[in-house]
Design goal:
With about 220 residues, the protein is an alpha+beta fold. It has a single domain, classed as Pseudouridine synthase. The protein contains four helices and twelve strands. The longest helix is centred in the first third of the chain and has 12 residues.
Length: about 220
């Protein structure tokens, strides 16, 4: 798998929907982005993940020291990520900032009896996401998303929690919403961070041509 950017310390890659970030359990789940990358770059190491059905930008380190430094950037929230998604319906107006961002605060907990599902629960880990409308129609809304924290399935759970699950979401959307798209309509569009060695600002973007109007999925990433 060829990166869209590489230097001696890191790789930026475009993950397709349907591909695991790392190996899963069982022989049928060994094909994944990390293995494909390591076939070409044996020193490449995982720094973060995207859900199997989420597409978009993902970062890998080249070597242990680069992995350590990049992981620290994630831990200290110096990595900025933005996503594009199409959700069912039109989210109701709520308090927003001067740039049009709304905030969802909802602690997320693994639903152990129904794993891998996650739920909003007072016993969960504090979680925050921001969203704003890019385009809407009578049936769906194209939104921009910014995860402030980085919990598993965070954006999917948060959007479901406000009554607007993502189209094509096989875990968190009802069947009629799943059937509106052949894939999960969630895409990691923007990735920004200071270079782990030079501290130079790094910024990458991988847009998709999606719409709030049917058929929604104009371009499959």
């Amino acid at each position: 798998m060829a990166p869209i950017f590489e230097d001696e310390h890191l790789l930026v890659l475009a993950k397709p929907s349907g591909l695991l970030s790392v190996p899963g359990r069982g022989p049928d789940k060994q094909d994944c982005l990390s293995k494909r990358v390591q076939d070409r770059y044996p020193e490449a190491l995982v720094v973060h993940r995207l859900d199997r059905d989420t597409s978009g930008l993902i970062l890998m380190a080249r070597g242990i020291e680069a992995q350590r430094r990049l992981s620290r950037l994630f831990e200290t929230r110096q990595v900025k990520k933005r996503y594009t998604a199409v959700v069912i319906g039109e989210p109701a107006p709520s308090d927003m900032d001067e740039e049009g961002w709304h905030t969802i605060d909802g602690p997320i907990l693994l639903d152990w009896d129904r794993r891998p599902l996650h739920i909003i629960s007072p016993e969960g880990k504090p979680s925050r996401s921001r969203w704003r409308v890019l385009q809407n129609s009578t049936t769906a809304t194209l939104v921009e998303l910014e995860p402030v924290t980085g919990r598993t399935h965070q954006l999917r759970v948060h959007l479901q929690s406000i009554g607007h699950p993502i189209l094509g979401d096989s875990l968190y959307a009802p069947l009629e919403v799943q059937d509106l798209s052949p894939r999960l309509m969630l895409h990691a569009r923007d990735l920004g961070f200071p270079h782990p060695f030079s501290e130079k600002p790094m910024a990458f973007s991988l847009p998709v041509d999606w719409s709030a109007q049917p058929p929604y999925l104009s371009f499959s990433a």
